[in-house]
Design brief:
Layout lengths: L1 H12 L13 E3 L1 H7 L2 E6 L12 H14 L4 E7 L3 H13 L2 E7 L11 H8 L3 E5 L7 H21 L4 E3 L7 H20 L6 E6 L3 H13 L4 E6 L7 H16 L11 E3 L12 H14 L8 H13 L8 E6 L10 H4 L6
Parallel strand pairs: 2-10, 3-4, 3-6, 4-5, 7-8, 7-10, 8-9
Antiparallel strand pairs: 1-2
The protein binds pyridoxal-5'-phosphate.
Length: 352
Amino acid sequence: MNNEIQQVRALMAQKPRANLGFFPTPFYKLERMSRELGVELYIKRDDFSGMSLFGGNKIRKLEYLMGDALDKGCDTVFTYGATQSNHAMQTVTAARKLGLTPILYLNAYVEPDENDIRANMLLDRVLGAQMHIVKGLDGETEAQTEARCVELGHQHAQRLEAQGHKCYDIPLGGASVVGSAGFIGGYAELMEQCADMNLEPDHLFLATGTGGTLAGLVAGRAMLGGGPRIVGVAVSEKGPEYEKKCANLANGALEWLGAPARVEDSDFTVDRGYFAPGYEQPNERATRAIRMLARMEGLITDPVYTGKALAGLLGAVESGQLAQGSRVVFWHTGGATALFAEREILGDLSQA
Ligand SMILES: *Cc1c(COP(=O)(O)O)cnc(C)c1O
């Protein structure tokens, strides 16, 4: 295993990378939750990825995305997301550190109150990002608004390029081939920590949105061989093509890295049972999961991503899908700023 990990590291070291985070992120056992659930539960703290207090999983992607942007001589970075996008906010922090101009095209699933800007939008403001808020039009689906948002960003980038700027375009969630590859390194990092602890995890749970994180982890597992079953708990509705999209990202990342391994659609396990009613819309099971981890371990998860993923993990313990005594890793992807966002994102969490 150690040899394979070194091979991953050697391939990753050939790629341009911006140093943004603090790695390795902590990894350890949750003793009280483990006793309560009857499984050995471990946590991977990518909420501690840096570089600000408000880091999360996007930092691993951004190290390679920003490395690529600098390598290509770009001076401006465009990205997209919801108004409360963790990815957009982390991209702005990275752009500021590296001296690139951050421009955001954000769609308003939840309409921000101009007089009471909160959470990630507030941070985007403090960081001085150029923000363009795109509201849904009558009769437009969320997917159509999202597509229009991206189109507006592309047109803006073209105007800037005509003036001599060089723009780098980061897709929603940073889920490009380059971004996803960051999680191949993340997977190798986890496996190294597991090896040091003499631990062979059976399952790994994480929240999946755009799929870049899941794709990178599954690609990493394909490179190293063996490894835990990886379950992505969907945080929004995913069509039947989602696994294929993730597999394409994973294979693209492997190819980009120059690794011979490949994955199949069937390597992806996506649990669609915990996102309802929808993205940025809270549900009772996530609320319960958030309270449970907070009250047993003093750790904070969020209603949009990690709370739903944790609910998926707890549900799998309850249903017996995870055998008693099995070794389970929860990959904490960050996102706690959602707790300070609009009330409609929070649900009942403010109640006792
Ligand atoms: C973006 C995000 C995810 C999902 O990652 P993807 O790579 O988009 O699937 C999970 N958790 C948090 C907190 C995030 O911000």
